[in-house]
Structure formats: structure tokens, C-alpha cells
Amino acid sequence: MSGQKSGTNLLELRIDLDAVARNTRALKESVDPAQLMAVVKADAYNHGAVEVARTVLAAGADQLGVATLAEAHQLRDAGVTAPVLAWIWSPEQDVAAALDAGIDLAVISPEHARAVVDAGRPARVTVKVETGMHRSGVDEADWGKVFAMLRDAPQVTVTGLMSHLACGDVAGDAQNNLQASHFRAAIARARTLGLEVPVNHLTNSPGTLSRPDLRFEMVRPGAALYGLETVAGVPEDEHGLVPAMSWVGRITVVKPVAAGEGTSYGMTWRAPEDGYLAVVPAGYADGLPRAWQGRFGVTVRGRAYPQVGRVCMDQHVIFLGDNPDGVAPGDEAVIFGAGGVSATRLAEQVGTINYEVVSRPTGRTRRVFVGGAIDDAASVTAGEDGTAGGAR
Q1: By residue range, what is the domain housing residue 34?
Q2: How many CB atoms lie within 10 A of CB 391?
Q3: How many angstroms separate the CA atoms of 301 and 299, rounded?
């Protein structure tokens, strides 16, 4: 839907690229001299991977991080030439094609190391080591085998080691220190075996913000780039981050409701008094879960109104009371973001985390970019069909 303008859609995901750039610059300045790997996996946390990648690189990011090979290829196909590291892949995939595209690979097991070596291509790899999270990563018993295998392959360059904090959102958790100790031991072991491992990275967004002693040679923030607070127990504005995403619908219907009358499937809610209902065109097919019923509100004309009744596939209903502000069809209804509650606050209301909230918008939601150095042809929508999230 090239040429689509903001404000013409019933359901929009507005991405402020200036906010992304500001957050990137602030993080880069705060971690200097460490490098900054900007994590743009999962379509840049649903903010648009290609547009965000260009933005963060222009704002000072040194490298990019993604989960899958497909995500890395998407960036290469879009002309992004900066280093891109992918850390979730299978030895059965086309490793040679990834290496030929200049994609850096994380090695998470002996089998992954063997696949890189057997590809016979020049390769840049980062060894992901197990330090206590017990998810993906080379177990300590295999460190020596993997380090030696990669060292003895002349076409392979080991750029460093990486790991991931299990409790990074709680700065004082003892698990962070334990993992850091294991990580330092892995670096020492690699160097003893003849690997330089010059650029090592452990911290995600919360670790980057709250544990400067664990930054090593590079940090790996994701959520913080998008303005999300990730450190537990601190105010949303603690680190000066600017949220970049707003999810906005347009009211389609306003109608009266009498005291005692219900709305939506099952009549699970009935009006406590005479008033008005309004319909917002966002439902569970668009990423707004049915289970959120009655636990959140929507902001219209600066006032928050409660969601009532069942969340449907395509829409949900809000109660306007006596409609003091004259809400009318066509008015913007902010589910979260600028002019409404933050993603973090919405997450608290519905019992999840802000990472999941920003990942939710999908379906008929149209992504629109504002700000940044994105030209009109590239800024209008996400994906070939202009939809956000998993619809790409």
C-alpha cells in the first residue's frame, strides 16, 4: 500500500523513528567505549526491521542483532551492509548461503560449529556460551572442543563470545554475578586455547542500563531502543527513554445504551447507567487478546474510557458514560502510546510485560512511520501488504 498516509486507516501502528534515533544515541553515548549491537529481531520488536535498522545505524549503532537467518537475509536484501549477527538457526539450514551473504552466525553447540566449518566459506562467528540460563549455548563441557574446532578452521574468524542474562531486569540478583563469572571464565578459556575473542557481549537492555560493570566490549540492547523501560522497580522515565510505538484505532460507531443493557457476545457486561458505547476496530485477529476483556481502557480526546464486554475478532467496545467530550465516529482511540497509556502501563493492567504488548499489534493494523530520514515511498507501511507484525 505504497503512498498510504497516517490517519487514513481504521487501525494504525505509528512508529516514531526520531524516538528510536534518540534512544540509540543516548544508549551509545552511555556505554562508550563499548560497541552497541542494536537488536532488531522479530521485525524490530514489531517496529519494522529495515526502517529501524537504517535509523539505528545512522544514530551510531555499530552492529545489528537478529534471531533467525530469514531476519538477517531480509536486512541484506534491503541493502543493509553493517555487521548482522543471527543466533537462532539450525545446522540443516543453508549455512553457506548465510555466510555468502556476509551474515555473522552465533555458534550454540558443537553441531553448529561443525556446520560452519563444513560450509567451507569465510565465516565470522560468535560463540554463545552457557553461563547458567540453561537455554541455548555451548555447555562448559564442550567449550574446549568448540573453541579448538573453530580455531583450527582457517576460514573461520571468532569475533568473540556472547551469553544472555536470565535475571538482567533485577540489577542486584545474584544470578547476574554468577553468570558474569562463568562468562569471564569462558573468555579466559578461549584465549588460553589461542582465540583472541576481541568483542564479547553479555548484557541485554536491562543489563546495559543497570550493570555498567558487565558491558564488556559490546552491549546488546533491544527493548530500550524502542523506549521501553526494562529494569524492574524503576519509574518509566528513569532512563530518559522515549517510547516509539503507538497503536491507534478510529471510532466507527457511537450509540446510546440504557442502564441494564449489555453489549457484545454473551452479554458479560451491562451498563451501570444510561450512557453511550463506542466501537474500536481492534480485536483478537489484530493482536488484542480476548483475555484482556475488562482489564484495559482506551484514550479518546485525552480521556480514558474502560473497555467493556467481550473482545471480538475484529473490534471491541468502550463505555463513554454520558460522553462528556462528545466522542464521535472518526475520533482517534489510543490503545497505547502517545496520547494514551504507555505500553508498560498497559502491560501492568493486563498482567504481562511491555515486550509482549508491543509485539501484539498485527492483522489489519497498518504500520506508519513518522520522523526519521525515511522517504515517502518507504515510510508508509510495513511489509508488502502494509500490515504489521506477523502478517508480513
Answers
A1: 17-226
A2: 18
A3: 7
Q: Specify whether 343 is located in the same domain as 285.
A: yes
Residue 388 is assigned to a structural domain of this protein: no
Q: Identity (one letter) of the amino acid at 314?
A: D
Catalytic residue positions? 41, 265
In the chain the first and final C-alpha atoms are separated, in Å, by 13
- The structure's pTM equals 0.92
- How many alpha carbons lie under 13 Å from residue 284 in its C-beta half-sphere? 9
pLDDT category at 372 given cuts 50, 70, 90 is confident
**Residue 384 is assigned to a structural domain of this protein:** no
Give the integer Cα–Cα distance in Å for 79 and 50: 9
Q: What is the pLDDT of residues 285-335, one digit of tens each?
A: 999 999 999 999 999 999 999 999 999 999 999 999 999 999 999 999 999
Does residue 303 share a domain with residue 162?
no
DSSP, collapsed to helix, strand or coil, labels residue 327 as coil
- Say if 319 falls within a structural domain: yes
CATH of the domain at 287: 2.40.37.10
Read off the pLDDT of residues 96-116 as tens digits, 9 standing for 90 and up: 999 999 999 999 999 999 999
